[in-house]
Q: What sequence folds into this?
DNA sequence: ACCTGAACACCGTTCAAGT
DNA sequence: ACCTGAACACCGTTCAAGT
């Protein structure tokens, strides 16, 4: 057969079993199945039918793989702003923040992976440019727009980190309900006792929307 | 001697070289010297002139040690609210948020340690009770006060995580200045290009105060 | 009661050697 | 060019045995 006797000029030898894209995809699948702590280079190699050392031809270190995973996770979120005119600046900023949270939630330990790396790929930079763009076009100054990006991004990542930690196996509720309830019933922490139903609520979307609204209302006040 | 034949009921045998308090303190010292990645049970044991296995008489797992470290880091921050009447609710809340950030900044990788654990000791709960108390006494509803705690805490931890990551060895600036500058000069990301001076600024206090102000202004709007 | 010594079951990373 | 095999220098954790 021609395909055996005349290998294509680009790919002499056997076709590579590995490449960056396939490795990142397999790593994200493994992350979803087993979580970040179980994502080892050896297990990933096993899932790709290869020895662990082979991965280092494509990623200089595990950290680089994690960064590529983080970048892949936030693919497309820049588009959440929508076209100019579709909603005012606060609604468009809210959509971007929600898209970031949703992207992180889409993968087990997604926020931990994202927070633990410093992705500077087109998806991450595109998101940043989009958010800053929405605010600049709405009349915000360059300084305020840049700082607003940090505020929204840091709050969103911080929130989702907590959210995924609370939802992880072994966690009762948002602040480990059992321990809280004990300490609180003992009479200390009267204010926590009074707000216990909300504190132990697992409606994280409501918590997120509350904080997001604070930031947007705050931005509205800054704008004038 | 009586002390040999009649060992005190609490401390027979040689005095223990280890105890929780001394171990946590040594671990925090080691953290400051070498960072979280270098803080291993074996190195900590070495610093205490003991075998690694001995640590497990006081901490069931490394995670428990890290939780105790996190709790110790935020000792006293609840007091930052000050007595009732010393500043209005927004100033008292700001002081609490700043105290949290300062406490995390006081230890290398402090935010990573705090975010990676779920301390429920008196320092952490005291801080939470204090912040919720400030808002409830100012007339905020229980639900809003509880959610405001999450917003402020998640933003503060998220911000400090970024701040300490940016300050870590090997990082140029806030968003890896070099890579950003390249991508930005290429013409893509026009909004990032325009705001580059602020984005790459290392004045993290200004960034933090901006976000904190957004949250407090947002809370002011919610209050009415 | 408190700690040692030694083991168990792993890690990330490197690199000569094979094909 | 791409991957194997094997090693290096570690990890967290457990637990019989010593004192």
A:
């Amino acid at each position: 057969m021609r395909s055996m006797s005349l290998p294509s000029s680009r790919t002499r030898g056997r076709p590579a079993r590995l490449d960056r894209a396939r490795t990142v995809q397999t790593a994200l699948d493994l992350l979803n199945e087993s979580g970040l702590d179980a994502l080892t280079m050896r297990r990933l190699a096993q899932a790709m039918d290869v020895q662990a050392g082979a991965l280092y031809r494509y990623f200089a270190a595990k950290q680089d793989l994690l960064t590529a995973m983080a970048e892949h996770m936030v693919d497309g979120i820049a588009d959440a702003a929508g076209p100019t005119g579709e909603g005012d600046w606060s609604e468009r900023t809210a959509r971007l923040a929600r898209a970031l949270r949703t992207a992180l939630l889409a993968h087990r330990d997604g926020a931990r992976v994202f927070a633990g790396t410093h992705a500077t790929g087109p998806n991450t930079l595109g998101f940043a440019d989009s958010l800053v763009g929405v605010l600049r076009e709405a009349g915000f100054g360059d300084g305020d727009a840049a700082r607003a990006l940090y505020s929204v991004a840091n709050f969103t990542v911080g929130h989702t980190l907590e959210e995924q930690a609370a939802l992880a196996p072994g966690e009762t509720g948002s602040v480990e309900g059992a321990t809280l309830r004990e300490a609180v019933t003992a009479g200390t922490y009267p204010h926590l006792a009074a707000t216990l139903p909300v504190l132990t609520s697992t409606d994280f979307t409501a918590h997120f929307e509350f904080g997001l609204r604070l930031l947007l209302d705050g931005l509205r006040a800054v704008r004038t």
Summary: Confidence is low (pLDDT under 50) at residues 1-12 of chain A. Residues 151 and 215 of chain A are 8 Å apart (CA to CA).
